[in-house]
Design a protein that fits this description.
It is a single chain. The chain has about 110 residues and is mainly alpha-helical. It folds into two domains: about 1-25; about 30-105, no CATH class. The protein is built from six helices and no strands. The chain is globular and about 30 Å long. The structure holds heme C.
């Protein structure tokens, strides 16, 4: 009985692991660790677009998925932050905009 349970558990664990993780965690999925921009995104965008946030439909921010949540959405992000200045809703300071633009022009590096 106990042995069977262990076996089932192990099989299930493997199936879940290979099924979910290898499919969803693509090889080039890296974490977003940029020393200037990561804290800014966390504090200025995370409350609404981060995990558990109120607006994840238009944009879901996940620092552990740089490729999907930043790189893949960069033109939208650039447009609302720098062109339209509609995000973050309270506005960004000139210093923040300059840092954002410099980061963007540098190819929006993850680190
Ligand atoms: C107070 C909540 C809140 C915060 C903080 C916030 N957003 Fe948003 N965001 C929204 C809402 C609501 C919408 C959808 C309505 C809209 O487009 O104005 C949205 C939409 C967006 C979209 C999609 C726009 C489109 O046209 O599809 C992007 C991209 C975005 N936000 C990026 C950001 C970034 C980057 C930050 C941080 C610098 C940020 N948001 C901070 C609430 C927020």
């Amino acid at each position: 009985m106990n042995r069977n349970r262990l076996l089932v558990g192990a099989l299930l664990g493997c199936a879940l692991f290979t099924g979910l993780f290898s499919a969803s965690c693509s090889k080039d999925s890296t974490a977003f660790e940029h020393t200037t921009m990561r804290p800014w995104f966390d504090s200025k965008c995370g409350s609404c677009h981060g995990s558990g946030g109120s607006n994840r439909i238009q944009w879901a921010y996940d620092p552990n998925d740089y490729t999907g949540s930043i790189k893949g959405k960069i033109s939208k992000i650039y447009s609302v932050v720098y062109n339209k200045r509609s995000m973050p809703p309270g506005g960004a300071t000139q210093t923040e905009l300059d840092a954002f633009k410099a980061w963007y022009d540098a190819g929006y590096p993850a680190k």
